[in-house]
Amino acid sequence: MEDAQLYVSANGLQRRDALLVLSEYLPQMEWKEDGETVLDVGCGSGDVTRNLLVPLLPQVKQVVGVDLSQEMVTYASKTFHHDSINFHQLDIERAVQPRQVFPDGFTKVFSFYCLHWVQEQRSCLNNIYQLLQPGGEALLVFLAKNPLFTMYQNMSLKTRWQQYMKDVKSYISVYQDKTDPAQVMADLAEDVGFQILSCEAPELEFVFDNINYLKNAIKAVNPFLKRIPKEDQEAFLKECLAELVLLQGCQQEDGSAVARYNLMIAHLHRSQ
Fold first, then answer.
1. C-alpha to C-alpha distance for 125 and 104, rounded to whole angstroms
2. What count of other Cβ atoms lies within 10 Å of the Cβ of residue 170?
3. pLDDT at 2
4. pLDDT greater than 70 at residue 227
5. Secondary structure class of 253 (helix, strand, coil)
């Protein structure tokens, strides 16, 4: 997940979902006439922040993108520079008193395809709550359930790869095995202090034009690849792809591949 250029070239699914969710939820939000201060949590390579989020925001003064990876932040700052955007390194899961970093807070917080990597959901949600000004809104979008996570689990049991994947549980959504992931998320967010405007985890589909595109999408987000010797990385990727195809039965006769997954969409409000 450190190869920003690869991620930009292979994140069509993430961009599609961000656009779908923004198109539906932005009209439901309340917007200040004098402009909003916006935080994008897990901005990654910065392309979604710059090319999707900012153009769609009706009123904006400033946008800040934060990410755990300094490499991603550096890439975003260089490649997707914009006068109203600043990119910073921040670990939303482990940050202590994040308002010391951003003392004014934000009127809107967005996050796309980031929070499924977070194991300590309560800490993360509490930090988002602290960063949000009273009266502000958050829109959090991330994977609730995905065969990708099952694939990681299965790969970690294989003798050839298990030494590189001993911490596999750290890279699996905490909602993966929940019967009602949206309710679990809503209960936790409410306990932190949020008002739940809506929280759902619908099943979605995305069609990859060909199996190589799916392979690159897997490669772009695979947290284990960099641990594996370079001479073995291609074999690892091929096994990951084969395992995922087996799990989903996703490869079509025309060479395309269909991904099916549940996407968490949480629209939250901080009343005080």
1. 18
2. 9
3. 57
4. yes
5. coil
